[in-house]
Specification:
single chain; 943 residues; alpha+beta; Cytochrome Bc1 Complex, Chain A, domain 1; 7-stranded mixed sheet; 28 strands; 40% helix
């Protein structure tokens, strides 16, 4: 259950997110008055409207098999709340899980968990300004579960019980959810949102609501909201999965036709954010905000997606954003980049508006330079436009992505269809299906000209309806620019001598000459899991698992023992930054600016890494571009590129990002937790300027070359759509050409373990009345499937109990969870984490409740019903995971790296039956006892 502020999200900068873009109508008129063709709805989806106004979408889809995804969409969100209902749209969403006509109190969650549905991960919902959506993925191969799934959707639509007792219990949960959002970003947002939303109704209807209303509203007020707005003419059921469409349609008609409309339905007003035709400016600061940010937002009426003309416009916008993004990427690769982050694009805003949004995260003390750099790129595009070579690359990339989606048309996951139909219902956005879109994109893209693209800068980068938001640390308040200064900066750029963009391209091939290659010297098969193992003449080991899960996907990884463990503490910073430096510097004869241009139109991503105990790479590609990915792999082994200028810029950016890290409570707590659990080893303490000063380019480059100088102990794992026989020549040519020294290395045991015994540490940082709690158990461990299953089961069972007690019974947390991790190398170790956020005054009480639940398991064992839920969840998730390429890539990599039997997965579900209440009782007694660390983040001052 969550609130969604669709208008924005924060990383370190304010970023305007995408919201809806449509308002479909039977006919549309172009500017010249000629009718344009409306894009049809995909005929593969069956849709209809019942006499009471209830809408439904049904589509058969077998990805994944024996599964169906159900969404109940309501065209109602916080924007429709009365003044005494602020936050109740979201509160109502919570109450859907706290008792309905056919599933009293917590029966709904309890029942679904027994069917293998995880609360929060699978079963969930969200509320935004304009909609509330409930989501439920369930098995479809059990008629009883499918029947009850539909009944749950029907209950949500109009049969929530909303008892006084459950409403009052849920107040604490929602208030804790609101508490989690408190902090610098929320405090600053409260200041600039009225301006950003032009003081419209959206300014005071944030979905989370107000604490005053949440604490004091009467149950009758919530029931009135439910009665007024949960009605069939504002609702739709979306059903996509492995189901019988005809039977499902009859079920929907039987179940939902009796939904009642109010005798006098309230008008569902369509609120907007009016354009004021003026410019606005605001500066906001906060002592906990770690960076200095400027955001420029120019608002415009939204672009709709209804007709073929609209679709062409959407392609133009996509190409524009892609080319502009590439230019900003180049700026960031300079020796002395003008900012920490910067960018711009055209996107949807909110409430019938689009926007051109540009942002900069400035280096400390360099706001003017960063701001002007971003404006200069906007001005450069306005004056000179883009180049033909940029447009051609963007078209190639766009059409390649469309082709890849088209190739997966029969392997598209149900969630993708559900989200399309959700936008169709809520926003009237066209949803014609990928075959239609692929053909339309191919017919339209070639005709798009530079003139079409360049007109977008004239249309969107304007000097009216422009908002400028400056954000920064409070200590820098006097150094931040005022409105007069910013207006002068804007004028300066308009009057400056901006030059045209020069496109740096190379026509050289990725590899200049054909490689000699090697030979396959041995081959074995593990038929039970469809795996082939190859050994090449240079010692490289290759694991192949061909699949048909995706039509246009091949993923592969590689690993070798060693990593940063082989280097001294003095070399650690250089070693840990080595692959970041190489990735940012380019490869072979191609700089980091030239390489992505060379790869335009291809899907071939290869990324090397050096971890603590291994080095290797991860990659994703397509059957068509596999050879390119293998060429990149060869180059990352043999031709890393050392770029001193790029390195300098990279380190300066890293330093700039750390300048005010100590202001952020979450960063301080994360660094403290890592240091404490790592026994204050230098490899576990947080980042710092001092550490960055230790990174030496020459040493980092030398370490990288050492790690990839010997492929003889590398294992490559390939998973995806390939023919094992047909790709052998490519493997021999590229992987067989990798250098071989036969070093036979092993990673070093650094002896960094979580401290033994009991430890209680408190970190005081932040001004909000909120606390974060981490409880950590750890110790030595005998790594085995049996023990791993026990720890996983213990974590899931304890999570279930803690949700029931800390959230549902005590109302003290929004979320709480237990998580187990374990390792085999360099020696068996386990860690068991429990984490939650809460009010500072509740920390001790909730920790006590947590330990009480642990003691119950240690004394009496786990409840059989909770173990049943764990087994059901694992069984159902395994059924879908074994049809997923990423699962197999990760699983095989892990098994071979740990020298475990790769066939283990075949007996995994059966092995879960060994988990019993007594087994978990024993596991809890052993694992959750002596080595116990309490870590708590508390505010600096009492509020």
């Amino acid at each position: 259950m969550r609130t969604v502020n669709k208008f924005l999200s924060f990383s370190v900068a304010l970023v305007i997110a995408v919201s809806g873009i449509a308002n479909a109508q039977p006919k549309a008129k172009s500017k010249d008055g000629a009718a344009t063709e409306v894009i049809p709805l995909d005929p593969a989806v069956r849709t209809g409207k019942l006499p009471n106004g209830f809408t439904y979408y049904i589509r058969k889809n077998v990805e994944p098999k024996n599964r169906v995804t159900l969404y109940l969409a309501n065209k109602i969100g916080s924007i429709m709340e009365n003044d005494d209902q602020l936050g109740l749209a979201h509160f109502m969403e919570h109450m859907g899980f706290n008792g309905t006509k056919n599933f009293p109190k917590n029966d709904l969650v309890n029942y679904l968990q027994k069917t293998g549905v995880r609360f929060g991960a699978d079963l969930n919902a969200y509320t935004s300004f304009d909609e509330t959506v409930y989501q439920l993925p369930i098995p479809s191969d059990d008629p009883e579960i499918l029947k009850n799934g539909i009944q749950i959707m029907r209950d949500w639509a109009q049969d929530a019980t909303l008892s006084d007792e459950e409403i009052n219990k849920e107040r604490g949960v929602v208030i804790e959810e609101k508490r989690l959002g408190k902090g610098a970003q929320q405090r600053m947002q409260d200041q600039f949102l009225p301006m950003l939303f032009n003081n419209s109704r959206y300014s005071n209807r944030l979905p989370i609501g107000t604490e005053e209303v949440l604490k004091n509203f009467t149950p009758a007020t919530l029931r009135q909201f439910y009665t007024d707005w949960y009605r069939p003419d504002l609702q739709a059921l979306i059903v996509v999965g492995d189901i019988d469409v005809d039977a499902m349609e009859q079920t929907i008609k039987a179940k939902f036709s009796d939904l009642k409309k109010p005798a006098k339905p309230r008008v569902r007003t369509r609120y907007t954010i009016p354009l004021l035709n003026k410019n606005q400016f605001i500066t906001v600061t906060d002592k906990e905000f770690p960076v200095t940010v400027a955001q420029i937002i120019v608002k415009h009426p939204e672009s709709k997606l209804i007709t073929k003309t609209d679709y062409r416009n959407s392609i133009v916008r996509s190409l524009f954003n892609q080319m502009l993004g590439a230019r900003f990427a180049e700026l960031s690769k300079q020796a002395n980049p003008p900012f920490l982050q910067g960018g711009a694009n055209i996107s949807a805003f909110l409430a019938g508006l689009d926007n051109y949004s540009a942002f900069v995260v400035a280096k400390p003390g360099e706001m003017e330079r960063g701001f002007k750099a971003v404006l200069t790129e906007s001005e450069r595009v306005q004056r000179f436009g883009f180049t033909e070579t940029e447009l051609e690359r963007a078209k190639q990339s766009y059409l390649t992505d469309m082709e890849s989606s088209f190739k997966e048309k029969d392997k598209t996951p149900s969630n993708s269809f559900v989200n399309e139909y959700l936008r169709h219902f809520l926003e009237d956005e066209a949803s014609p299906g990928i075959a239609y879109e692929f053909n339309l994109a191919n017919s339209l893209t070639s005709g798009i000209t530079l003139s079409d693209i360049n007109s977008y800068s004239k249309k969107y980068i304007t000097d009216v309806n422009r908002d400028v938001i400056i954000m920064g640390p409070e200590k820098d308040k006097d150094k931040l620019p005022n409105e007069t200064t910013v207006e002068k900066w804007i004028t300066d750029i308009k009057q400056s001598n901006v030059t045209a963009y020069v496109d740096q391209v190379s026509d050289k091939p990725l590899l200049a000459a054909k490689l000699k290659g090697g030979k396959i010297v041995s081959e074995s098969k593990t038929a039970e899991i469809g795996v082939t193992e190859l050994k090449l003449s240079n010692g490289v080991k290759v694991i192949l698992k061909p699949t048909d899960f995706k039509n246009d996907e091949i993923s592969f990884s590689a690993f070798s023992p060693g990593g940063t463990s082989l280097y001294s503490d003095a070399d650690f910073q250089s070693a840990s930054f080595a692959t970041t430096i190489i990735r940012s510097g380019g490869i072979g004869e191609f700089s980091s600016v030239q390489l992505p241009k060379l790869l335009s139109g291809k899907i071939a991503y290869v990324s090397p890494y050096i971890a603590e105990r291994s080095e290797g790479l991860s990659a994703s590609t397509t059957p068509k571009d596999l050879e390119t990915a293998l060429q990149l792999t060869y180059l990352y082994f043999t031709s890393p590129r050392k770029d001193a200028e790029t390195f300098k810029g990279l380190i300066e950016q890293q330093k700039g990002g750390l300048a005010n890290r100590g202001n952020d409570p979450n960063s301080v707590f994360a660094d403290s937790v890592s240091a404490i659990l790592g026994n204050y080893n230098v490899r576990r303490t947080g980042p710092s300027i001092e550490k960055l000063n230790q990174v030496n380019l020459d040493r980092a480059f030398e370490i990288y070359k050492e790690r990839f100088a010997d492929a003889s102990d590398f294992t490559f794992v390939f998973v995806g759509n390939f023919d094992a026989e047909k790709i052998k020549p490519m493997l021999e040519q590229y992987l067989g050409s990798l250098p071989s020294l036969n070093r036979n290395e092993k990673a070093k045991d650094l002896g960094i373990n979580i401290p033994a015994g009991k430890l209680d540490k408190k970190v005081y940082k932040g001004q909000e009345p909120k606390a974060s709690v981490r409880l950590v158990f750890s110790g030595d461990y005998t790594y085995s499937e049996k023990h791993n299953n026990q720890l996983d089961a213990l974590a899931e069972v304890l999570t279930i109990k803690l949700i029931e007690r800390l959230r549902e019974d005590e109302g003290g947390v929004y979320g709480v969870g237990a998580r187990a991790s374990y390792s085999k190398m360099p020696k068996g170790r386990y860690t068991f984490n429990i984490s939650f956020g809460c009010a500072p005054e509740n920390v001790e009480k909730l920790i006590s409740s947590t330990l009480d639940e642990i003691n119950k398991i240690k004394e009496k064992g786990a409840l059989a019903g909770d173990i049943e839920k764990f087994i059901a969840e694992e069984t159902r998730s395994t059924e879908t995971q074994v049809k997923d390429n990423n699962f197999w890539l990760g699983y095989l990599t892990n098994q071979y790296q740990n020298e475990e039997d790769p066939k283990q997965v075949l007996k995994y579900v059966e092995s879960l039956k060994e988990v019993t209440p007594e087994v978990l009782k024993s596991a809890a007694q052993v694992r959750l006892s002596d080595n116990f660390i309490r870590l708590v983040l508390l505010p600096e001052t009492k509020n």
